[in-house]
């Protein structure tokens, strides 16, 4: 598979995940807040608001464009909300339920991306407990491929507070772009883990 074909696939993924996005604005280094979620940015990012499913306060942070590296912030998801827009009725996307177990939450994210995010396969690894604003959270790594064969990787953190689901999701092509921002992305994830040493 030539790089140009894989690059085109990455563009399509960025567009599908950032459906209905508005123009980007600079999110300067320091605290960045959307909904009830506040993360710490070590440098300036581009911040793009977008509507996806029933989520109204979602944001995506990117350095080089959503198709190349993107940190998605989904705060305050309510019962019945979907992570991504449903494109086909015969292939419905999962709906969040506050009664979901940790395992069901990981499957909710995975199935949402497979059904409406533009991925052919996704593997979840290194699933582990973490903290989000002092509350319990789960964190895991991800790898997979697009239908065009582009290798992608990322990570995610999920936490339910007062029955509201909060998700931080990082996705990028494995070649070059994922590693380019990995240290800053890890800092974003760690910034919400109160009570831990932030590195």
Structure description:
The chain is α+β, with helices and mostly antiparallel strands and 199 residues long. The chain has one domain: Protein Transport Mog1p, Chain A, CATH 3.40.1000.10. It is built from 4 helices and 10 strands. The chain has helices spanning 3-17, 102-116, 177-180, 182-191; strands at 25-27, 30-34, 37-41, 45-49, 59-62, 70-77, 121-132, 135-145, 151-161, 164-173. The strands form 2 sheets. An 8-stranded antiparallel beta sheet has the order 1-4-5-6-10-9-8-7, covered by helices on one side. Strands 2-3 form a two-stranded antiparallel ribbon. β9 (151-161) and β10 form a beta hairpin. The longest helix is centred in the first third of the chain and has 15 residues, at 3-17. It is globular.
In short:
With 199 residues, the chain is an alpha+beta fold. The chain is 22% helix and 37% strand.
CATH C-level:
Alpha Beta
Separation, N- and C-terminal Cα atoms: 38 Å
The count of domains is 1
How would you state the average pLDDT, rounded? Answer: 85
Figure out the total of helices: 4
The CATH H-level superfamily is: Mog1/PsbP, alpha/beta/alpha sandwich
């Amino acid at each position: 598979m030539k790089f140009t074909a894989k690059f085109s696939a990455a563009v399509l993924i960025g567009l599908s995940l950032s459906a209905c996005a508005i123009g980007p604005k600079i999110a300067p280094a320091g605290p960045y807040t959307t909904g009830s979620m506040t993360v710490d940015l070590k440098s300036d990012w581009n911040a793009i608001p977008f509507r996806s499913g029933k989520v109204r306060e979602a944001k995506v942070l990117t350095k080089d464009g959503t198709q190349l590296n993107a940190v998605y912030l989904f705060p305050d998801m309510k019962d019945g909300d979907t992570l991504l827009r449903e494109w086909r009725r015969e292939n419905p996307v999962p709906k969040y339920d506050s009664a979901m177990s940790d395992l069901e939450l990981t499957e909710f994210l995975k199935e949402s991306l497979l059904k409406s995010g533009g991925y052919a396969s996704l593997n979840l690894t290194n699933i582990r407990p973490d903290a989000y604003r002092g509350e319990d959270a789960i964190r895991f790594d991800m790898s997979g491929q697009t239908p065009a064969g582009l290798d992608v990787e990322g990570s995610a953190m999920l936490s339910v507070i007062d029955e509201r689901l909060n998700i931080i999701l990082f996705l990028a092509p494995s070649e070059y772009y994922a590693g380019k921002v990995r240290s800053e992305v890890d800092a974003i994830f760690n910034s919400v883990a109160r009570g831990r040493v932030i590195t």
